[in-house]
Design a protein that fits this description.
The structure holds two protein chains of two kinds.
Chain A (H helix, E strand, L loop, with lengths): L14 E4 L3 H12 L4 E4 L11 E5 L2 E4 L10 H6 L9 E3 L4 E3 L7 E4 L2 E4 L4 H24 L12 H15 L3 H10 L4 H8 L3 H12 L11 H9 L12 E2 L3 H14 L3 E3 L4 E7 L2 E7 L4 E3 L2 E4 L3 H10 L5 H8 L8 E7 L16 E4 L3 H12 L8 E5 L14 E8 L9 H19 L3 H4 E7 L1 H8 L35 E3 L13 H16 L1
Parallel strand pairs in A: 1-2, 1-14, 2-10, 6-16, 14-20
Antiparallel strand pairs in A: 3-4, 5-9, 6-7, 7-8, 11-12, 12-13, 15-18, 15-19, 16-17, 17-18
Helix pairs in contact in A: 1-9, 1-16, 3-8, 6-7, 7-12
Chain B lengths: L2 E7 L3 H12 L4 E4 L32 H6 L9 E3 L3 E4 L5 E4 L3 H11 L1 H25 L11 H16 L2 H12 L2 H6 L5 H8 L15 H9 L2 E2 L2 E2 L3 E3 L4 H13 L3 E3 L4 E7 L2 E7 L4 E9 L3 H8 L7 H9 L6 E8 L18 E3 L4 H12 L8 E5 L14 E8 L12 H18 L3 H4 E7 L1 H8 L35 E3 L13 H13 L14
Parallel strand pairs in B: 1-2, 1-12, 2-9, 4-14, 12-18
Antiparallel strand pairs in B: 3-8, 4-5, 6-7, 10-11, 11-12, 13-16, 13-17, 15-16
The chains are: A alpha/beta, B alpha/beta.
């Protein structure tokens, strides 16, 4: 896919982008480079959306939502010269440490076990498993910057898109293609049970598949979310993990700089109240302050439900379409825990040199599944699973000298935001600290300050419906041409001038920037034919 | 010793259908059955004097009408009697009826939730559209999408074309039907938890998935795509019990000159020079034929029937990983009279259909959690029928036979085998749930036959007691069933074929796998095809 060319005829047509999340910024940068007049409106005081670094206790900073980088699109990075705007990695190819309460941890990365109680059979199996998933993930990765094809009702380019997808799968070769078609729709638990012996290894691999989803390891679709997570190369190779220097905020700061350098205007603290219409096409937006901004094109980085049902209003949509939007599943299950520590914590049996890696508490797949069971009924896991990162080990900008920051994604959190939320937060925090205490008995005494963001808090702070970081469950029924809703997967909404560019669209969430780039191309394609 | 053209191992309904089509084409065929009776899981057995139990499968809808007509099963004694309706009874004493009449059903849903009444029309239209799409595929051999053979490419083109004909929105609906959970799927139509719970039962019967597990919407479709007498989605009783299906198939097979040997336990496949030569029996005898068709499930076929040394290790691995996962049990009950269900009243015709005692999706999901945790559901989902109300041949005059299908029941209890005490406790769980809705039920019980996966495996031979011979999940459907690359009924050894429900299109007493396998065998033998193809809508 080539860079966007300034070829449109409606140069005067101003574009408003709602939300300066990473996708909104990517979209803004591409459109501005193509010569469009672009204004990005951000509700918060700083750009970044859910990819921000902020202070949570005096002197302690943390990536407030997403905390690791897997998927940032290589093409976007290149096109927007993000390195020249300050993006660099504190660490690429982070290792994963599967913590065991007894200290028998498994350290692995890129399909290789570096240490830990793992049988030779499991070591070989992990290498095969990882290599195979990488081959599948590469097929998924190839789709990131493509517009999902319309099936059955599209034109020649849709047919071509579908054919390309078929071809990519076919090119895997017979054995891989069969395996891909077999496992793409099923659950990671079965695949792990087929492949490995070690419960600890299976547990940590199961966690990779369910992070950020409302799925358990035994839920079908969990292989799909695993492949999605592995489908980028930002962390090094496919599936590798990186920690940006300065946290996730550096990524969006670089994007904001790129967008502004290309000529886009960025206005923070400017929450949009609604999208305005003139007849049956979009005429601009009105801010909460009452100010109106006229624009022929509005691109929303907000999630589909928020954009279409709140900012636009269901009454402007065809009933069936509004109904489909209402049914987008966006119940977030991931909480975010931030601990300010007065020193480096100790984990039983863990070499201090490994504290900067990605630490995982998921001792076996059944444990993970049990943690999920509670989420089905809206309650919190009594024994949650955790993905822990201590960015201050790599980067002194996160905490005062000698002090440290622990950032953890915790599943599965209670999702009800109603009365008693504070009591629930306190209770859940106790459970989490209880689990952490089994692995790091001294941790509790080192805590200086705590912040726990439940999905409801994430919903409020980052304005994401349900606090779901994919802006809607990533599943086979919400994938490719079915994302965000069937029949509207090509970024343009069924209302002239309105586009979506966020994680709710293909290819989904995870700080990729692909949706923003694809949306920009859709806007430009429409402009050039108008 | 006589040499046969083909040996079919196992006299289940698919084995018999397969044998019938082979015999019809002029082959000399023998069916070998280990039990003293035929039928596999489609049997009628007099366990209690005077009572006939359909003690495994118990209702009929999916049996392919093309096969029914083609093998002339009515002449061979098979009669399917449709039963009207069904009902879900809630713990608060309310009911939700199941009616065959569309408008009555709509009003019944509207009684619980006005908008759900309106949604019912949209729902049933969408489901029927999916059924019409899938039905023609049941009697077709799935293509291999990785193959470049003309035949596979032609079939892929056919499928793509049929798919494209559906139109854009219906295509999207189709994809969603195959991938969603039944709870999410129903959530797109209905609001009432009771309506959703009532409909979602069909999404979990026989499968080790919960109502919230993606993939269960398809299982619902699997239960809807049948018909009785041209009435789509209807279910019926085989008069005389499900054994009547097997008996009619056997009779049809014999009319073409076929031979059935019962009490004939096949020990192992005989393979020489990479080719099938026949089978060795447990008593040491050998029966010879160049074609052996296994009606056993894929796991049993490739880990027990075939000697491991005759197979590629990668293939054996695949067979081991085939997901069977038994999840159902059954109680067959002889009753001294007709139990009353106060929620229904004495003359409510809904009693003639299937009864369920459930009122929310959460209750169903929790039943699944128990299974996941290694025990039978403490609050199970029951599919209860009293066939003797419709078919008096099932019990002595004035007496009744009750069939209670139970979801979920695991093949092992916390990883160990079932004990008799477990079985009794399981029985009591089920009996108590029924008794809560029928005060006189317990007094009327004369005999109960308890069927856990252990009994289903030991007696019928279904591994882990899975009623579909393997899960109906996406990784095991169409060209993935039973394994990718082996969906065209041919085994990995020349001359070995599979014809059980573990192959496309799966279980449910369809007889389609048996017929499809026969078509492939005849193709390999270059004999004219005797098997009906596609779907003949009349």
């Amino acid at each position: 896919m080539t860079d966007v060319q300034p070829a449109n005829k409606r140069r005067d047509d101003k574009v408003v982008i709602i939300g300066a999340g990473h996708n909104g910024l990517v979209c803004a940068a591409y459109l501005a480079r193509a010569g469009r007049e672009v204004v990005v409106l951000e509700a918060a005081a700083q750009p970044g959306g859910a990819a921000v670094t902020r202070e949570f206790a005096p002197g302690f900073r943390v990536s407030a939502c997403a905390h690791l980088l897997y998927l940032l699109d290589a093409q976007v990075s290149r096109d927007l010269a993000l390195e020249s705007h300050g993006l660099k990695m504190a660490r690429s190819n982070l290792r994963t440490v599967a913590l065991a309460a007894d200290g028998g941890h498994i350290v692995h990365a890129g399909g290789k076990v570096e240490s830990g109680p793992v049988s030779p059979a499991d070591r070989a199996a992990l290498a095969d498993y990882h290599a195979r998933l990488q081959r599948f993930a590469r097929v998924m990765g190839k789709q990131h910057n493509r517009r999902p094809p319309r099936i059955g009702g599209g034109d020649r380019s849709d047919l071509l898109g579908a054919a390309l997808l078929g071809l990519d799968i076919r090119l895997l070769g017979r054995d891989d293609m069969r395996e891909f078609l077999r496992i793409a729709g099923i659950n990671v638990y079965d695949v792990l049970e087929e492949t490995f012996e070690s419960p600890l290894l299976k547990g940590t691999l199961a966690l990779d598949a369910v992070l950020g989803t409302n799925l358990g390891p035994r839920s079908n679709n969990s292989v799909l979310t695993l492949l999605h997570r592995m489908s980028g190369t930002a962390g090094g190779d496919y599936g590798a993990v990186a920690l940006p220097a300065g946290g996730m905020g550096t990524v969006t700061a670089a994007l904001a700089a790129a967008a502004q350098k290309s000529g886009a205007t960025l206005r923070c603290s400017s929450p949009v109240a609604r999208i305005t219409l003139e007849g049956d096409r979009v005429s601009g937006v009105q801010l909460e302050s009452g100010e109106t901004i006229a624009a022929g094109t509005v691109v929303s980085n907000a999630d589909p439900a928020r954009t279409l049902l709140q900012l636009l209003g269901a009454r402007h949509l065809e009933t069936g379409f509004a109904e489909r939007v209402r049914h987008i599943r966006s119940r977030g299950t991931a909480a975010k825990l931030h601990l300010a520590l007065d020193g480096l914590p100790e984990f039983t049996g863990l070499d201090g040199a490994l504290l900067g890696e990605r630490l995982v508490i998921a001792p076996d797949p059944v444990y993970v599944e049990h943690a999920f069971d509670h989420s089905k009924y809206g309650t919190a896991s009594p024994e949650p699973v955790l993905e822990i990162v201590m960015p201050s080990v790599h980067d002194r900008s996160f905490s005062p000298q000698g002090k440290h920051v622990l950032s953890a994604i915790v599943q599965y959190a209670p999702h009800d935001a109603g009365a008693g939320a504070d009591a629930r937060r306190g209770e859940f925090l106790e459970r989490i600290l209880g689990v952490l205490g089994k692995y790091s008995p001294g941790l509790r005494r080192q805590i200086v300050a705590t912040e726990l963001l439940l999905p409801a808090d994430i919903e409020r702070e980052f304005r994401i419906t349900g606090g779901h970081w994919h802006h809607g469950e990533l599943a086979l029924d919400r994938f490719l041409m079915l994302r965000p809703v069937p029949g509207a997967a090509q970024y343009a909404m069924p209302l002239d001038g309105l586009y979506l560019c966020g994680a709710g669209c293909h290819p989904g969430g995870g700080v990729m920037g692909s949706a923003g780039g694809n949306a920009a191309r859709a806007v430009l394609a429409a402009g050039s034919t108008a | 010793m006589t040499k046969y053209d083909a040996i079919v191992v196992g006299a289940g309904h698919n084995g018999l259908a397969n044998a019938a089509y082979l015999a019809k084409a002029g082959l000399k065929v023998v069916v070998l059955e280990k039990n003293p009776w035929i039928g596999g899981a489609a049997v009628s057995r007099e366990i209690q004097d005077g009572w006939i139990y359909s003690n495994c499968s118990y209702v009929c809808s999916l049996l392919r009408p093309e096969i029914f007509r083609d093998l002339d099963l009515s002449r061979h004694g098979l009669q399917i009697v449709p039963y009207g309706g069904g009902v879900t009874c809630t713990s608060s004493g309310d009911i939700l009826g199941n009616y065959t009449d569309h408008d009555v059903q709509r009003r019944e849903f509207a009684r619980h939730n006005a908008r759900d009444g309106d949604a019912y029309h949209r729902y049933s239209t969408d489901v029927m559209r999916q059924c019409r799409f899938i039905r023609p595929l049941l009697l077709r051999t799935p293509p291999d999408p990785t193959s470049f053979r003309v035949r596979d490419i032609r079939e892929m083109v056919y499928l793509s074309r049929e798919f494209a004909k559906l139109g854009e929105q219906v295509i999207y609906d189709t994809i969603r039907f195959y991938t969603m959970s039944i709870a999410d799927f129903l959530g797109e139509y209905f609001e009432s938890d009771l309506v959703k719970a009532h409909l979602s039962g069909s999404g979990i019967i026989g499968t080790a998935l919960g109502v919230y597990s993606p993939g269960t919407a398809y299982v619902l479709l699997h239960h809807y795509m049948g018909e009785v007498d041209g009435s789509s989605g209807a279910w019926g009783f085989a008069r005389g019990g499900m054994g009547a299906v097997s008996k009619a198939l056997a009779s049809s097979f014999k009319s073409f000159g076929g031979e059935i040997r019962t009490d004939c336990d096949v020990d192992q496949l005989v393979v020489r020079g990479g080719k099938v030569r026949g089978v060795a029996l447990a008593n040491g005898d050998e029966v010879h034929a160049d074609i052996v068709v296994s009606n056993l499930d894929p796991k049993r076929t490739f880990t027990k029937l075939v000697n491991e040394k005759d197979l590629d290790p990668a293939f054996v691995e695949r067979a081991r990983n085939f997901k069977i996962r038994g999840s159902s049990g059954k109680l067959n009950i002889a009753l001294d009279g007709l139990p009353t269900f106060p929620a229904l009243g004495p003359d409510n015709p809904l009693r003639f259909g299937d009864m369920h005692f459930i009122d929310s999706l959460e209750r169903l999901e929790r039943a699944y959690d128990d299974w996941k945790n290694g025990t039978w559901s403490k609050d199970p989902y029951l599919d209860l029928l009293i066939p003797s109300m419709t078919d008096p041949t099932m019990a002595p005059p004035g007496k009744h036979f009750m069939s209670v299908f139970v979801q979920y029941v695991p093949p092992k209890i916390h990883g160990r085998d079932w004990t008799d005490a477990d079985r009794d406790a399981f029985r009591d769980t089920v009996v108590e749930q029924i008794a809560r809705h029928s005060p006189d039920f317990k007094q009327l019980v004369r005999h109960i036959e308890v069927r856990t996966p252990r009994e289903l495996e030991n007696e019928v031979g279904l591994t882990e007691g899975n009623i579909f011979q393997g899960e109906l999940t996406m990784d095991q459907l169409l060209f993935n069933r039973p394994f990718p690359g082996y969906a065209q009924y041919r085994g990995p050894v020349k001359g070995l074929y599979m014809c059980g429900s573990g192959t496309h299109p799966g279980g449910g007493v369809m007889a389609a796998p048996g017929a499809n396998a026969a078509r492939e065998i005849l193709l390999d033998l270059r004999k004219p095809n005797t098997v009906p193809e596609g779907w003949t809508d009349d």
